[in-house]
Write a structure and sequence with these properties.
It is a single chain. By secondary structure, the chain is α+β, with helices and mostly antiparallel strands. The protein contains three helices and seven strands. Helix content is 35%, strand content 29%. Strands 1, 2, 3, 4, 5, 6 and 7 form a seven-stranded antiparallel β-sheet that branches. The chain is globular, with a radius of gyration of 19 Å. The N and C termini lie far apart (52 Å). The C terminus is likely disordered.
C-alpha cells in the first residue's frame, strides 16, 4: 500500500479513536455524583429555571477549560447550560473527606451570559445535615 494511503488511514483511525475517548470522558463526568447533584440543584431552583427557560439543555464540558478540575477529594466544574431564554454556566464545587466516601456539594451557582449570578446551593454552617450527599 502506498505511504500516502497508510498515512491517510492512520489519521482516520486516530481521529476516530480520539472521538471515542472524548465521548467516554464526557459520559464519565455526566455520571459522577458531583455532576448529578449539581444538576439536581439546577432543576429544583425556580429562579434559575425562570432565567434560562425550559426545557433545559446541558452541554458537554470544555475539557480544555482550566476551571474544570477533579481529583480524589475535590471537584470543580463549569457546566454549560442553556434554555430558550438564556444560557450560561453552572459552577460546581464539591469535596469528600476520603476516597470512596460521599461527595458533598460546597457551592453551586448559575452564571448567565449577561453576568448575573444565581446562587443555587451553599451548605449551612449550622447544620451539616443540609449538605447534599451521594456516592
Amino acid at each position: 500500500m502506498p505511504l500516502g494511503k497508510q498515512i491517510f488511514f492512520a489519521g482516520v483511525a486516530a481521529s476516530g479513536g480520539g472521538a471515542i475517548v472524548y465521548y467516554l470522558v464526557q459520559k464519565m463526568f455526566s455520571r459522577a455524583a458531583y455532576y448529578q447533584l449539581a444538576l439536581e440543584q439546577l432543576h429544583s431552583h425556580p429562579e434559575a429555571l425562570e432565567a434560562l427557560g425550559t426545557p433545559l439543555n446541558v452541554h458537554y464540558l470544555r475539557l480544555t477549560d482550566k476551571y474544570n478540575f477533579v481529583d480524589i477529594a475535590d471537584a470543580k466544574l463549569k457546566i454549560p447550560v442553556s434554555g430558550p431564554k438564556s444560557e450560561g454556566h453552572l459552577y460546581v464545587s464539591s469535596s469528600r473527606d476520603a476516597p470512596f466516601k460521599r461527595w458533598n456539594l460546597q457551592e453551586v451557582f448559575l452564571e448567565l451570559k449577561d453576568g448575573q449570578q444565581i446562587p443555587l446551593f451553599k451548605p449551612s454552617r449550622d447544620n451539616d445535615e443540609v449538605k447534599k450527599e451521594r456516592r
